[in-house]
Design goal:
363 residues, five-stranded mixed β-sheet, binds zinc ion, alpha/beta, 19% strand
């Protein structure tokens, strides 16, 4: 396991109202860095539950201090009512808590959390608006609860246990229906001044391009996500091009059923058209990464999320486009681009670990 570099100011263990904010906004490299290092030593036996709230399902797991999942459970996401979602979380924690001594609970969800980690400011799938989720859950679960953005949780997990270990400037990209982003810099999650950093999917990469859910046009996630892959494939199939025959066969001619997952499967099976479609998406991916490298200069990009099932069929073209568009290419070292190591459980592993790390530090 990678041990982060400690900062210079060893602080005493104290319970303060701001510990979660510091944890998420910079504890590991700031005044509490000594505490963070101490946690990593003390916390080896601690178990935590991570909960990943998605648009369709809520996945939870008991995670040990080495990032291993000891038990798992799942439920359907019960609509968008916050109380119903809380109830599902409580049921999952109670179910998984039997037979395990659980220290803390980490919740990862799409959306923006305030820097204190107590309130969901906005969640696209769940109708949460200024929802004080953490306090509600702490009352119900009687354990420390940490709330975090799902992409941040996945990025943290990759840094701690996956493809980002040992990196002091790491950028993680999660490619799914959209694009999630996370930065782990000097051993801490970088969340920006207001807690909403890392929205790389909404960098405008093609002014006037496809309309995005965020309201703008031409966002990166309209070109380099699983949804973008599906949309491009449907457009090609709808044009009745002979090159789309395999795609059409796979859905019995029902163009609207073509998804990014189907294209990825066909590409892996060797369909040249599906490979081209993935190559296009990979090129957009590499172009966006070059923009991020110009701004952030990371040592490595870790690429995760469902679309990564495509493996090198996606990341190969991304590396080429990245090299071709990198500012100062030929005169500077270039970041590595690597596939994520932890798969679809990265979010719950990271949420659990963040909750365990922060609660160990301050109890
Ligand atoms: Zn957008």
């Amino acid at each position: 396991m990678h041990t982060p570099t400690p900062g210079q100011q060893p602080g005493p263990y104290r319970r303060t109202a701001g510990w979660r904010r510091r944890m998420l906004a910079g504890a590991a490299a700031g005044p509490a860095a000594q505490g963070f290092r101490e946690h990593l030593r003390l916390g080896r036996k601690g178990l935590a539950i991570g909960v990943d709230i998605g648009g369709t399902k809520v996945a939870a797991g008991v995670v040990d201090a080495e990032g291993r999942i000891l038990a798992q459970a799942k439920r359907s996401t019960p609509g968008s009512d916050p109380r119903a979602v809380e109830q599902v979380i409580v049921e999952l924690v109670e179910e998984l808590g039997e037979g395990h001594r659980i220290w803390s609970v980490g919740i990862g969800a799409a959306g923006w959390m305030d820097l204190d980690g107590g309130t969901v400011l906005f969640s696209p799938h769940l109708a949460w608006r200024n929802e004080p989720l953490r306090d509600n859950l702490q009352r119900l679960l009687r354990r420390p609860v940490l709330l975090t953005n799902d992409a941040d949780a996945a990025g943290w997990a990759e840094w701690r246990f996956g493809a980002g270990q040992g990196q002091n400037r790491l950028v993680c990209i999660t490619l799914g229906t959209g694009i999630g982003g996370a930065m782990v810099m000097d051993g801490r999650l970088e969340r920006g001044r207001f807690g909403v950093a890392g929205e790389f999917g909404h960098q405008i990469i093609f002014p006037g391009g496809h309309r995005c859910e965020c309201g703008n046009r031409g966002c990166w996630e309209q070109y380099a996500s699983g949804n973008a892959l599906g949309r491009e494939a449907r457009e090609l199939a709808a044009a009745n091009s002979p090159v789309a025959q395999e795609l059409l066969n796979a859905v019995d001619g029902h163009v609207e059923r073509i998804t990014g997952v189907i294209v990825t499967e066909l590409a892996k099976a060797g369909d040249p058209t599906s490979r081209e479609l993935l190559e296009d998406v990979g090129e957009w991916l590499g172009l966006g990464l070059a923009n991020l490298a110009a701004a952030l200069d990371p040592g490595k990009f870790v690429i995760g999320g469902g679309l990564c099932d495509a493996g090198e069929l996606l990341v190969g073209p991304a590396r080429k486009a990245f090299a071709r568009n990198l500012t100062g290419r030929g005169f500077r070292p270039a970041a590595e681009i690597e596939l994520a190591a932890l798969g679809p459980n990265a979010g719950l592993i990271g949420a659990a670990d963040l909750s365990r790390v922060s609660s160990r530090m301050h109890s």
